[in-house]
Design goal:
about 50% helix; 3-stranded mixed sheet; alpha+beta; single chain; GMP Synthetase, Chain A, domain 3
């Protein structure tokens, strides 16, 4: 019987939890005052690189997505250092942050589907 989760997916889930906690509680950058959600972590096969996908609803202090990603990517060394202290891994992966806009795309599709549904009800 094959295991349902392999090692890389278990490590990715644990990284997702730990990175979210670090961003929320340990990252003390006054420029980032928004709630950031870590939606997914993808690891390379050799576990040396991690793509961290983040999402957030809106920017309060006029920071664009690019600026927030730039700030997080600059802080990735600090985040990696904190991960070294909390996780028991031989090698903690290098972290690169990306924006996950799937929530907004899904919301846009939902609005379009509701509009089509209303238009079809009017025609009937």
């Amino acid at each position: 019987m094959e295991k349902s989760f392999n090692r890389s997916s278990r490590i990715a889930q644990e990284l997702q939890k730990k990175i979210a906690m670090i961003i929320q509680y340990s990252l003390k950058d006054p420029r980032v005052k928004i709630m950031i959600t870590v939606s997914q972590v993808r690891l390379s096969r050799d576990l040396s690189y991690a793509q961290v996908f983040i999402s957030f609803l809106e920017t309060e202090n006029n920071l664009t997505v690019k600026k927030i990603l730039m700030l997080l990517n600059k802080a990735s060394g600090y985040i990696r250092k904190l991960l070294c202290k909390t996780m028991n891994l031989r090698m903690v992966p290098n972290i690169v942050f990306f924006h996950d806009d799937s929530f907004f795309k899904g919301n846009k599709i939902s609005i379009l589907l509701n509009k089509v549904k209303k238009d079809n009800n009017i025609m009937l």
